Amino acid sequence: xxxxxxxxxGTPLRISLVGMPGCGKSTVGRHLARQxxxxxxxxxTEIERRLGMPIREYFEQRGESAFRDIEQDVxxxxxxQPGVLLATGGGAVLRPSNRDALHSRSHVFYLRATPEELxxxxxxxxxxxxxxxxxPLRRLRELYRERDPLYRRTAHFVVEAAxxxxxxxxxxxxxxxxxxxLVDPGQxxxxxxxxx
Length: 196
Hints:
Layout: E1 14-18, H1 25-36, E2 39-42, H2 43-51, H3 55-62, H4 64-78, E3 84-87, H5 96-105, E4 107-112, H6 115-122, H7 136-154, E5 157-160, H8 166-179
Parallel strand pairs: 1-3, 1-4, 2-3, 4-5
Helix pairs in contact: 1-8, 2-4, 3-4, 5-7, 6-7
């Protein structure tokens, strides 16, 4: 079995998760990193650490373009690290340089969920700057129309994340990694329990 954080070829494994806000990137990412022995890195957490303030506050003070500049620098840095699982922000794919860095330096999973499902999950969220609008569902639909093709272009794998539980979603991602020959089958729990 490969060493912790390595793929089947013994090379450091890098995985990135992309998708709409609220699709489960951070939650699934933490579990998947633990399962595979990778370091979990959350792009938004790293951005806030560098800024010294919440993203929402920075957004309000400096605007989206300034935020995207910082995000680009963070993605450039984090995708160069070996043995990591990176959960990106929802808008990380908006810049071509980010899409290129993610796609060329890591195995990218798009956790796809519909705007309606995301709205159900996020309807009480007050921390996501782009959703602090009068009609969040309409905004999610607009973002989805704009970003879905970009997520698909960036990703190596698309996983439907609309309804599954975290363990089910984790299982789907692990199965894709196993089928692609990127992880040892011993790292993927069997969907069938042990024989009695």
